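User: Can you predict the 3D structure of Deferrochelatase? Sequence below.
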Amino acid sequence: MKSKDRDAIKAMFKKWTVMADRMMDGDTVGKPSNNPLMPPVDTGESIGLGASKLTITFGISKSLMKKIGLSSKIPDAFKDLPHFPNDQLIDDYSDGDIMIQACSNDSQVSFHAVHNLVRPFRDIVKVRWAQSGFISAKGKETPRNLMAFKDGTINPRKSNQLKDYVFIDDGWAKHGTYCVVRRIQIHIETWDRTALEEQEATFGRKRHSGAPLTGGKEFDEIDLKAKDSHGEYIIDKDAHTRLAKEANTSILRRAFNYVDGTDDRTGNFETGLLFIAFQKATQQFIDIQNNLGSNDKLNEYITHRGSASFLVLPGVSKGGYLGETLFD
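Assistant: Sure. Here are the predicted structure tokens for Deferrochelatase:
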């Protein structure tokens, strides 16, 4: 943030509410100007593309709340993320005061949304970091990461699960959620040289179907006690799915693949996962990541490079604005 002026930031969120609503309807960010000697109100790169199912999600960090004098409103459940085992974080992909997540069926529509939200307020905000990502899946199928495994199989889906694990119950942030963002580099060339059997043992699941190695279909329960004829656990003690399950909590994963060219030194692809998790308390993610950090077999093939956490603002009622319960 360039500004610590609470009133100016409140006014920005009010304008963002209207702008986001227009863009999600497939409209321009504002009414066109009749003066051709002035820059256009809307940058125009989404002309003719429609809404493309655009959604825009806004989050704020603890650092923003402190900067604008609202430390007293920081919920107890909004805990700082510790330094996890094997973290190799880069400042250029970490932290930030405000999160804007724009998702659509057209990456140009998504960029247009963020571009037009930031553009009028460059005296207040500047972009700290940005990452484009993509998901490819048919219908309601679980999408795959660039390691070819399904990502998000065990997400909470039922309304009672979302209530128990995702949405905040009370206080000014009721119906909001906490968002953890991790930029994870995938060492894809190393993974490419790994035998399929070892790949599946790393995740604890079949690559093609997503089913647990203990049998069944993708969404069947994992049997962590199952052993083979030699008395060895079918799902290894350091398998990703076992360690995540043993944390005994749940988060809503929304992960996006990214490809950022190549490494000039090695010629390797710069590939990875923009891992986004939603939960009703950041401790849920902390518990899972602490379990994965030291022991996860997957760590041989990935490196965590970026990290941030935000409180996703509750939805807006008719006539209201983003952050209304925070500012008023």
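Residues 57-97+129-327 form one domain. The longest helix spans residues 6-24.
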